[in-house]
């Protein structure tokens, strides 16, 4: 199994589903996206959270520097979502924020060190 598929399938396990949904609820409560806003899922990986937000009708752009994982995200998305290859340290948007709501970054690794970021 390729690494992206293996990672994403963890969310199908009882523990993965519980953790994913719990994190999703926490992020949603903090972000409280309004109609018409676009959420940037910075460090989206396989797109699990992007797809989850999209299920609620929230517009999402997934950003990740791993193009293989973005391909996985795109090929496993039931709804059209926007996937962008890029680095969190230098956002590939004209105004450097892309006019997004504060980006969630649930658990991303930068410079080899795990970090947990909040949305705001």
Low-confidence stretches: 109-120
State Rg.
13 Å
Please give the order of strands in the largest beta sheet: 1-2-3
Describe the sheet with the most strands. 3 strands, parallel
Mean residue pLDDT: 79
Taken as a percent bin, the fraction of beta residues is 15-25%
What is the overall silhouette?
globular
What does this structure look like?
With 120 residues, this protein is of the alpha/beta class. The protein is built from four helices and five strands, in the order ααβαβαβββ. It has helices at 3-9, 14-31, 48-55, 67-75; strands at 38-42, 59-64, 82-85, 108-110, 113-115. The strands form two sheets. Strands 1-2-3 form a three-stranded parallel beta sheet, covered by helices on one side. It is globular and about 40 Å long. It starts with a helix and ends in a 5-residue tail after the last strand. The model is unreliable at 109-120 (pLDDT under 50).
Salient structural properties:
120 residues; alpha/beta; 3-stranded parallel β-sheet; two-stranded antiparallel sheet
Topology:
Layout: H1 3-9, H2 14-31, E1 38-42, H3 48-55, E2 59-64, H4 67-75, E3 82-85, E4 108-110, E5 113-115
Parallel strand pairs: 1-2, 2-3
Antiparallel strand pairs: 4-5
Brief summary:
With 120 residues, this protein is of the alpha/beta class. Helices cover 35% and strands 18% of the residues.
């Amino acid at each position: 199994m390729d690494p992206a598929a293996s990672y994403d399938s963890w969310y199908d396990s009882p523990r993965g589903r519980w953790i994913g949904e719990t994190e999703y609820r926490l992020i949603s409560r903090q972000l409280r996206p309004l109609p018409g806003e676009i959420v940037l899922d910075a460090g989206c990986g396989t797109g699990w959270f992007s797809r989850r937000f999209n299920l609620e009708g929230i517009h999402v752009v997934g950003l990740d520097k791993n193009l293989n994982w973005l391909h996985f995200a795109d090929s496993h998305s039931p709804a059209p979502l926007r996937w962008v290859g890029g680095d969190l340290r230098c956002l590939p948007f004209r105004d450097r924020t892309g006019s997004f709501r504060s980006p969630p970054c649930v658990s991303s690794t930068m410079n080899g060190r795990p970090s947990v970021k909040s949305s705001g």
